[in-house]
TrEMBL record:
<dbReference type="GO" id="GO:0016114">
    <property type="term" value="P:terpenoid biosynthetic process"/>
</dbReference>
<dbReference type="InterPro" id="IPR005630">
    <property type="entry name" value="Terpene_synthase_metal-bd"/>
</dbReference>
<dbReference type="InterPro" id="IPR050148">
    <property type="entry name" value="Terpene_synthase-like"/>
</dbReference>
<keyword id="KW-0479">Metal-binding</keyword>
<protein>
    <submittedName>
        <fullName>(E)-beta-caryophyllene synthase</fullName>
    </submittedName>
</protein>
<dbReference type="InterPro" id="IPR008949">
    <property type="entry name" value="Isoprenoid_synthase_dom_sf"/>
</dbReference>
<dbReference type="Pfam" id="PF03936">
    <property type="entry name" value="Terpene_synth_C"/>
</dbReference>
<dbReference type="GO" id="GO:0000287">
    <property type="term" value="F:magnesium ion binding"/>
</dbReference>
<keyword id="KW-0456">Lyase</keyword>
<dbReference type="GO" id="GO:0010333">
    <property type="term" value="F:terpene synthase activity"/>
</dbReference>
<feature type="domain" description="Terpene synthase metal-binding">
    <location>
        <begin position="1"/>
        <end position="203"/>
    </location>
</feature>
<keyword id="KW-0460">Magnesium</keyword>
Length: 259
């Protein structure tokens, strides 16, 4: 479930980031909001493929949960997916208008487009613990643990992918927003943003240590998402260039440290 969600998000992100015109993206966004297979008829050919993949995956999620003997639906995940796509669309609008928002406004939207909440919900549903519905309600309200994962994932992605993303038309990143708002250099902005990342680690650690309304395994999902982001974007964009992560994958799966 988690893997399929990443695939659906990757396809959607590329559509908004590099391929769709604004008119096409406006139509596609309205179709995602409805999330009805019949909406595919009004979409351009290439985006029909993207749309059908997303609809198909959520149908498969429903079927898989029933096979497991569970009877909760995937509505929390579906709504989070819609919210993520709306955040992608907002970024496309900003790019089209050459708008550089204040940092706070950017991070409110950019944290959502990091999709950490959606990926966490996918994991919660896929794990199928007894407290699944309660955990989904908790995550959907975006408590501090979820916000930490969202913010950290967004900022580290912006920092590491900055040069490559600015080689083509792209929405302003947290670096651009910080530079404009505070009148500093790129290097100074990066230092401040790394300090913000350190604060997100403090937030998630605090959530791991204090009593919460959900089991610790749910908080650990978002902690692990932050760990994955830290490794993936450690001095390179391992998501865009997965070949750069070959050594880490081999160490993890083929030559793990004995415990």
């Amino acid at each position: 479930m988690f893997t399929k969600m990443i695939l659906a998000l990757s396809v959607s992100d590329d559509l908004y980031d590099a391929y769709g015109t604004m008119d096409e993206l406006n139509t596609y966004t309205k179709a995602i909001e409805r999330f009805d297979a019949d909406c595919i008829k009004g979409l351009p050919g290439y985006s029909q493929i993207c749309y059908s993949i997303c609809v198909k995956f959520f149908r498969e999620f429903d079927e898989e949960i029933v096979k497991q003997g569970s009877y909760y639906d995937v509505s929390y995940c579906k709504e989070a997916f819609k919210t993520s796509v709306l955040a992608y669309h907002q970024e496309a609008v900003w790019r089209d208008k050459n708008y550089v928002p204040p940092l706070k406004e950017y991070l409110m939207n950019g944290s959502i487009s990091s999709c950490a909440c959606l990926l966490g919900l996918s994991s919660i549903l896929g794990m199928g613990h007894a407290d699944t519905i309660g955990a989904c309600k908790w995550a959907a309200k975006e408590p501090k643990a979820v916000l930490a994962a969202e913010k950290m994932s967004r900022i580290i992605n912006d920092i590491v992918g900055y040069e490559e993303e600015h080689s083509r038309p792209h929405v302003a990143t947290s670096i651009d927003c910080y530079m404009k708002e505070y009148g500093v250099s790129k290097e100074e902005a990066v230092v401040k943003l790394y300090e913000m990342i350190e604060d997100t680690w403090k937030d998630i650690n605090e959530e791991c240590l204090r009593p919460t309304t959900v089991g610790s395994h749910n908080i650990n999902i978002f902690l692990n998402l932050m760990r994955v982001s830290d490794v993936t974007y450690k001095n390179r964009d391992g998501y865009t260039h997965p070949d750069t992560m070959k050594d880490e994958i081999e160490f993890l799966l083929m030559d793990p440290i004995p415990i």
